[in-house]
Structures are given as C-alpha cells and as structure tokens.
Design brief:
Elements lengths: L21 H5 L10 E4 L6 H8 L3 E4 L4 H15 L16 H10 L1 H11 L3 E2 L12 E6 L7 E8 L5 H14 L3 E6 L5 H8 L3 E3 L5 E3 L1 E5 H5 L11 E2 L25
Parallel strand pairs: 1-2, 5-6, 6-9
Antiparallel strand pairs: 3-4, 4-5, 4-10, 7-8
C-alpha cells in the first residue's frame, strides 16, 4: 500500500530556484513522520532531498539527467560534508569504465554531464549546441580579493590527438583561464603529454604551483583522481547549499525489491 500527499508550490515567492522552496517543503516533512519515505520523482536541484536528509528522514530522489544528479550530490556534500556519500546510493550512473563507455555511446551529452559531475565542474551551457571549445567550468578563489579564478574542461568521448590539446591551450588564452583539464577516455600519447607540459604552470597566491594543462582519463577519475588546483580558499563553482546540522547520521538506504 502506498499513501501519497502531493506537495504544491503555490507561493509565488517559492517558484524560483535552489533553496527558495526550503521553508515550504519543511512544512510537509514533519519531525513526527518517522515511518514515511519522501519521494520526489523530478528532484531537479534537490531541495526535497536536502530537507528530508536534514530532518533525518528516508528519501528517494529521481531525475532523468546526469546534470541534475551531479548537482544534487554536490549539494548534499556542501550541506552535510563529504561523509554523506556513504549514506546513500546512486542507481543508474556509471561506476566503471564499461558503464561510462556505454553511456558515451548512448548519449554524448549525458556522458559529458556525468563526467563533469565526477570532477565537481558544471557544464558551460546545459543546452546542446556549439561550445566554442568549452564543455565545463570550475571556479575557485585563492586570495581575498573575491575574484574567481576558472578552470576550463574539454571532455572527449572518442579519439584524442595533439591538436585537441593544442586547441585547449588556445581556449585558456582566449578565456584568460588559469587551468585547463582535458578529460578523455583513451590514454594520452607522449606527444599529447609533451604538449600539455609545455603549457607551463599556474602559481597560486600561497606559492604552490599546478600544471596549467592537465590530462585526466575517465579511468583515473573512476579510481579517484581529481584535477589539481588551489583548495586553500574555496570552490566557487556552484551556489552552495546552506550548511545543515542534522541529528547523528544514520544509513537510511532503502532496499529496492524487484518483482516478477
């Protein structure tokens, strides 16, 4: 048996984005509703998920795009800390090389959004179309000026070559970006690594240096490797969710039962 109570966002002020629906949803996610599971089948940027998690309630969030799933994962980590990842499962996204390859063959844009989500970047433009050599961006601060620095991503699902790396160097110069990430399936060739090395380094305000052009393979990302950039200030890529202070963390994973 399933009991469902629809939640309608009728308040004009709550028709915006991200956290603006928080207070409305909190009225429905009651503390006494211990035995209920909160389902949002179009969870978008994850407001319902965050509210339910904050109140230590069980939840299920569903969305069709890897863009939305990546945003929700980032939102949960910002609000509850990276340890929150151990308390939920994401079903339907690649977890190995074969799964990533299948996604790339099925839909290159979904693959691109998934890949960018794995490294904390956001798509340059979620709309499909000309990208001018930019698939994603990641912003960071490394001083007190308030000025954002940027990392530009180029995602390649197919073959790779030296000219593609050289093109990214040109994009960095055009956009005045500090770092570029070439994210690809195939391992880079020695000439590609040489081209990347010749791009030089970015020197941060604390004296640390980072390769200006970095090549990462999908397998390396799946193994946990991330772009190298200054982290002594803060990541400014997404509008951050407010930091939440829930009760003691519980693993509230729900078993999924398949019936014939």
């Amino acid at each position: 048996m399933c009991y469902a109570q629809p939640i309608t966002m009728s308040d004009e002020k709550n028709k915006l984005y991200y956290g603006d629906n928080f207070d409305v949803l909190k009225r429905y996610v009651k503390d006494e509703s211990v035995d209920l599971v909160y389902l949002d089948p179009f969870c978008g940027c994850g407001t319902t998920v965050q509210v339910a998690q904050r109140l230590n309630r069980r939840w299920i969030g569903i969305d069709i795009t890897h863009l939305a799933i990546g945003l929700i994962k980032k939102r949960l980590s910002d609000a509850f800390g990276p340890e929150i990842k151990a308390t939920y499962d994401v079903i339907g996204e690649p977890t190995d090389y074969e799964g990533a390859a299948a996604l790339a063959a099925e839909d290159k844009y979904q693959f691109q959004w998934w890949a960018l989500g794995q490294v904390g970047a956001r798509p340059a433009d979620p709309k499909k179309g000309a990208d001018r050599g930019i698939d994603g961006r990641l912003y960071f601060h490394d001083d007190d000026s308030g000025q954002s620095r940027q990392i530009i991503f180029s995602v390649k699902a197919g073959g790779v070559s030296v000219p593609q790396v050289r093109d990214l160097v040109g994009v960095l110069d055009r956009e005045k970006a500090q770092i570029g990430i070439f994210l690809c399936f195939e391992p880079p060739t020695k000439p590609m690594l040489k081209e990347a090395a010749e791009a030089g380094f970015y020197k941060s305000t604390d004296g640390t240096v980072y390769p200006k052009l970095q090549i990462l393979t999908i397998q390396q990302v799946l193994d946990g490797k991330q772009p190298e950039y200054p982290l002594h200030r803060r990541d400014a890529t997404f509008k951050k969710a407010p930091r939440s202070r829930p009760a003691a963390a519980l693993n509230l994973t729900l078993p999924l039962l398949m019936e014939d």
